[in-house]
Design a protein that fits this description.
By secondary structure, the chain is α/β, with parallel strands linked by helices. It folds into 2 domains: 6-12 and 261-362, Aspartate Aminotransferase, domain 1 (Alpha-Beta Complex), CATH 3.90.1150; 18-258, Aspartate Aminotransferase, domain 2, CATH 3.40.640.10. The protein has 12 helices and 14 strands. The protein has helices at residues 17-21, 32-49, 64-75, 89-100, 118-127, 149-159, 207-210, 224-234, 243-259, 261-282, 311-320, 346-362; strands at 6-7, 55-61, 81-86, 104-109, 133-137, 139-140, 145-146, 162-166, 185-189, 200-206, 298-302, 323-324, 326-327, 335-339. The strands form 4 sheets. The protein has a 7-stranded mixed beta sheet with strand order 2-10-9-8-5-3-4, sandwiched between helices. The protein has a 3-stranded antiparallel beta sheet with strand order 11-14-13, with helices on one face. Strand 13 and strand 14 form a beta hairpin. The two termini are 34 Å apart. Bound molecules: pyridoxal-5'-phosphate (PLP). Residues 10-11, 63-65, 68, 90, 137, 141, 166, 168-169 line the site of pyridoxal-5'-phosphate. Belongs to the class-V pyridoxal-phosphate-dependent aminotransferase family. PhnW subfamily.
């Protein structure tokens, strides 16, 4: 059998054979066998953040954005005011979806190569007493910047505003512990650092605010309060669940635990990122961010300055060697991105560096 292409993209990403094999069975959505899988996954997700005391977790069908939209719809009151801390594409998406559902939204813009500045956030909250919630992207996958979740959580607590976190591309890899920080909602999805397949998200919601969430949502399908209440009552998903995705996530979480959990995963991704930075550095390729700001999730590289460079050719040549890269997502500068996440390790990272070396040579760069 040919090897599948290795995905160096931040979701979907490369999954193990065990995870893929877990999808070879059909499940009845109402059946107790499937309900047991859902229940176990929910318990294990709460284990990962040590959140059993203060949080519940609500899974939702769809890609990660569906869960971000649902978290805001459910947690932000209709009369609430969301301040989105913007340093990239996913922040802009959060602001857009909040605006489109009619919630009052203000954007605090920052450069996409810098993490969010706390002093500016504090100032913005003090100047706008109507702000009720902060919207934060933990790892802004657009350029790969990690924002200071812990410090922003402390700031929100001190100033008495709520916090809604998109931790999509960081959850499972970077430390997130409910005993260290407070948030109203925190969102991630199956097909990111837990290394499942895409198709569902999940939202941690603080128990203390759960009752206030009833009736907030303008949307039936995105109402996480309703999804939660139904799931607690029946053990089932409200509407047809992505059964194969849930089964694959259960298997992926099992392997996450066997590997050694978040710290082991972070160690593997860190090793991946080191090989990549060193290897591409030797080829003369430079990262977009300062070294100290680079997170081992996804790395943005500046495109070679040579006139011979063309992303499409680069992409296709590297693909012919079995690796899928990711285009840049910055507005002004030409870049490309390489993910360090997924069921890949040192071997695959060395191989992709060789594939890129070959390609740059062919392009006369
Ligand atoms: C992947 C990702 C999402 C979700 O994107 P989808 O295309 O809906 O899966 C949201 N926020 C961040 C930061 C992400 O990395």
């Amino acid at each position: 059998m040919d090897r599948d292409n290795i995905l160096l993209t931040p979701g979907p990403l490369t999954t193990t054979l065990r995870t893929k094999l877990a999808m070879l069975k059909d499940w009845g959505s109402w059946d107790t066998d499937f309900n047991a899988i859902t229940a176990k996954v929910r318990q294990q997700l709460l284990d990962i953040i040590d959140g059993h005391d203060d949080y519940v977790v609500v899974p939702l069908q769809g890609s990660g954005t569906f869960s971000v939209e649902a978290a805001i719809a459910t947690v932000l009151p209709r009369a609430g005011h969301l301040l989105v801390l913007d340093n990239g594409a996913y922040c802009k998406r959060m602001a857009k979806l909040a605006t489109m559902m009619g919630r009052r939204t203000t954007v605090l813009s920052s450069p996409e190569n810098e993490s969010i500045n706390l002093t500016r956030v504090e100032q913005a909250i003090i100047e706008n007493p109507s702000i009720t919630h902060i919207g934060l992207i933990h790892c802004e996958t657009g350029a790969g910047v990690v924002n200071p979740l812990l410090a922003i959580s402390e700031l929100c607590k001190r100033l008495g505003v709520g916090l809604i976190v998109d931790a999509m591309s960081s959850f499972g890899a970077l430390p997130i512990n409910a005993k260290d920080l407070t948030f109203d909602a925190l969102v991630s999805a199956s097909g990111k650092c837990l290394e499942g397949v895409p198709g569902m998200g999940f939202v941690f919601i603080r128990k203390a605010i759960l009752d206030t969430c009833e009736g907030n949502s303008h949307s039936l399908a995105l109402d996480l309060f309703d999804q939660y209440a139904y799931m607690e009552r029946t053990g089932q998903w409200r509407f047809t669940p992505p059964t194969h995705v849930v089964a694959a996530l259960a298997e992926a979480i099992q392997q996450f635990i066997e590997e050694g959990g978040q710290s082991a995963r972070l160690a593997r991704y860190t090793e991946n990122s080191k090989i990549l930075l060193e290897g591409l550095g030797e080829l003369g390729l430079k990262p977009f961010l300062k070294d100290e700001d680079i997170a081992p999730i996804i790395i943005t590289f500046l495109a070679p300055s040579s006139a011979n460079y063309d992303f499409k050719t680069f992409y296709n040549t590297v693909k012919a060697e079995g690796f899928l890269l990711y285009p840049g997502k910055l507005t002004d500068i030409e870049t490309f991105r390489v993910g360090c996440i997924g069921a890949i390790g040192a071997k695959e990272m060395h191989q992709v560096v060789s594939a890129m070396a070959l390609c740059l040579k062919q392009m006369n760069i």
